[in-house]
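User: Good morning. I'm curious how 2-oxoglutaric acid would be positioned relative to this chain. Could you predict the structure with it bound?
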Amino acid sequence: MPSTSVLDSSLPVFDFSGFRAGTSEERMKTANRVTYAFKTYGFVYLVNHGLPKERIQALFDWSKKLFLLPQEVLMSPELRRPEPESIPGNLQICARGYGPVGMEKLSNLDPNDENGLKAHRGIPDAKELFETGPYWGIGQEREPNRYPSKDVLPGFEEFVKEFFMEAQELTLDILRSIAIGLGLEENYFVHYHEDADNLFRFLRYPPIERATLSSGETARTSPHTDFGTITILFQDDVGGLQVENPENPGTYLVATPVEGSVIVNVGDFLMRWTNDSLKSNLHRVVEPPAERELGDGLELTKERFSMPYFVQADRSKVVECIESLKGDGAKYPPISAGEYINLRTNAVFKSY
Ligand SMILES: O=C(O)CCC(=O)C(=O)O
Ligand SMILES: [Fe+2]
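Assistant: Good morning! Here's the predicted structure, ligand included:
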């Protein structure tokens, strides 16, 4: 329930130019800090990460234009993400395109717990989304992207493709910093992300009656962990994102918007890979702090835009616990990234 106690953010904020453009000493220092933050919180803010402010502003501008398209365009078969049950046994191809409010419910439940998942999905996440995948390699072969046609939203597809690539370059540097911080060869993780099957998600949380959020009747994004390698999150200035406090589980830290930053978090796949050394931490989106009275007893929250860029390893590659992190033994058996992602994808849809 969103009412659990909340502290102001003490999540670390680091200047990533020390890694992207610094001396080898600065690179090492930044890598160690980032890795330490991932071990402790699983979350870090990066500033001076190399993606210019204007580009990020343009990303939000495009997102607004996208969600302002008429419903009949968004819900058209060309653009709409198919319902998973329409493609039985083929859940790995239902990610791309537009998903209306209520289609998806993030959870942190066991993917094998069907009853638990059904009950949990009864409270929808109040968000609409648009998702794209890579326009390269297996991601593209598996499922082509769905974009609004060029006469409806000219320039959008080109922008998204370019931004996807820029985010991937930042990703590779973040992965290098983690490898260095863990004492591995710099490109250790990069080798597993040569044909990365990433997802770039545009989220819009519509204005909603504050009371329905605070009562838990509906959620913006319910508590969950991400399941890939890492996620890079772009959020606007509305707020509402919270991260579980590692020192006091069950309570949350506020992930306040920090201008010009991206938030990076560890996903379950990387946690497993590192034998739980790096932490994939619970997070959620609740009502934003700012209030807006609309009269008639109605108090609506602001709409909120965010874009997570989910980094997922090469599907065909099998990952096993990193040798130097085995300690008393590997906690998890080896698994291919594809197998793991499919397993987790099953759990997040409204129905299947
Ligand atoms: O909207 C946000 O800020 C976070 C969304 C999120 O955690 C997710 O989609 O996995
Ligand atoms: Fe998430």
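The chain has one domain: 6-350. Residues 203, 221, 226, 233, 235, 241, 283, 285, 306, 308 surround 2-oxoglutaric acid (ligand 1) (CB under 6 Å).
Let me know if you'd like a different ligand tried.
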